[in-house]
Design a protein that fits this description.
With 395 residues, the protein is mainly alpha-helical. The protein has 3 domains: 66 residues, lambda repressor-like DNA-binding domains (434 Repressor (Amino-terminal Domain)); 117 residues, no CATH class; 122 residues, no CATH class. The strands form 2 sheets. A two-stranded antiparallel sheet has the order 1-2. A two-stranded antiparallel ribbon has the order 3-4. Helix 2 crosses helix 3, helix 10 packs antiparallel against helix 11 and helix 15 crosses helix 16.
Amino acid sequence: MPAHTDGGVGRRIAYCRSVVRPRMTQQQLADAACVALGTIRKIERGERGVTDATLEAIADALGVDPTRLRSDRDTTQTRVHEALPALSAAIATYDLPDDGAIRPLHELRAAVAEATCWRLSAQYTRIVREVPDLLAELARACHAAPAREQLELAGLLVSAYRSADAVAYKFGARDLSARLIELMRWAAPKADDPLLTAAVAYVRTEIFFAAQAHAAGLRALEQAIDAAPASGTARETAARGALHMRAAVIAGRARDASAAATHLDEARALADRVTEDVYDGTAFGPDSVRIHEVSVAVSLGNEYVGRALAVAREWKPPNTLPAERRSGFYIELARAQLWSGLARDAFESLKVSRRIAPQHTREHPWVREDTATLRRLKRADAETLTNFAEWCAAT
């Protein structure tokens, strides 16, 4: 793994810690980044190099994009796109994997769980660097494992494909994303878990979003809801609730206010029966549904936008929610604020989103669109807004 040895990296970390995140101590940074205090001290003094993984953990703790700290200033987008061929190669051989080592099942389980955490916290460069090899190893394991392990391995493969898809979809590799979703649909039945199949149906909606085939996407989700198990256990309740939550958003994009309200009501009722948590890779619970209320309001537009502002006045997503979901809330809120003539508030929301999940914010098309609009309106500090626009490549 490459290490950045330029002392300037340490100086930039120290600057961000003391200026960008004022009052953050070295100990607080070490705790937030899960890095030893001595390591932070040596990096800031330029006495040791820093690997990509450590640098990204520090950047996440500081709420900045890793490219702001790197001496080479290489963009996240460039790094991800350069790594996509390795991901394509890994999935091309899903049924004919190369020979290689296979870790024990418990280690594979831990590796997939870690990749899921990276997805939920929008650490896309980590995913694209580590997951291709993990996918190849899981494919080997599926072919070589005894029958008693096949079901769990199939489920792990679905989860790993989902982490890879998050990168492909967010970075515009839509053909690769569609291929990964098809592989999820191929692997899910092998796990013999209808709730995992429901989770794949949730992810499949990306295809309909990308094609703007919202009415068709709504039909697909409603079919998945009909096929999902009844809401008995918390996991079953969350699976159905997540599908209703997703259906509400795509109904909003289809401008079907009635269907959006119906599915949102169903999601809300189911969320009241479970605690907020991540179920089969999807966050679900009362807080997640509230975030989706904002998303539905923005999707419907016009007179519904006020609802998004009303939610934000009364509530903010707690830090216990996954970073990508919290970041998405502020991106949606910024759009509602911009449409309501609250340009300064919109820019503040975008900056909050950036602090929460820099990579997710930077690659979101709405962020680029809304930042470009804000520059045309000239409703925020010109230098700060220009820097933000350059960071997210807004035109």
